[in-house]
Design brief:
This protein is an alpha/beta fold. 30% of the residues lie in helices and 25% in strands. It has four helices and seven strands, in the order E-E-E-H-E-E-H-E-H-E-H. A hairpin with a 3-residue loop joins strand 1 and strand 2 (8-15).
Amino acid sequence: MSTQTHRLIINELARCEECAVLRVSGELDQNAEKFFLRTLGDSVMAGHRHLVLDVTALVFCDSRGLNCLLGVRWLLRRREGQLLLAGAGRHLVQLLTLTGSTELIPRYLSVGQALLALPPSQRPTWPPSPSPCPDGKPGDAPPLGPEPP
């Protein structure tokens, strides 16, 4: 499963009943916040109490993006779940540090390490098995929904 907006793409990499691993690529800012919150909210409404966000390809995140992350964290905590970040870059780490958010949103070097923080029964299979995709890149799901104009 994958969805995208103008400058933000969210790909589902793996999932199980309790957890989804999502790759967030591009820019998380005011222009993408509704899309981000709707997409992650849909994942939570599908029953995922834990979300692991692979943010290695997130090139920009401002205060609005941080508020989105904190909002998703709040929602997951209400469901006794967690938001975990994997592969945060220097800019995002700096934003989390400057705002005192490092204590609220756990960060890990990789998705595999983040998944180890969850109980084994609540982890999807990682790494996911490659599946045939229309563009020929294994492991990447095609975008969902209509292509942006």
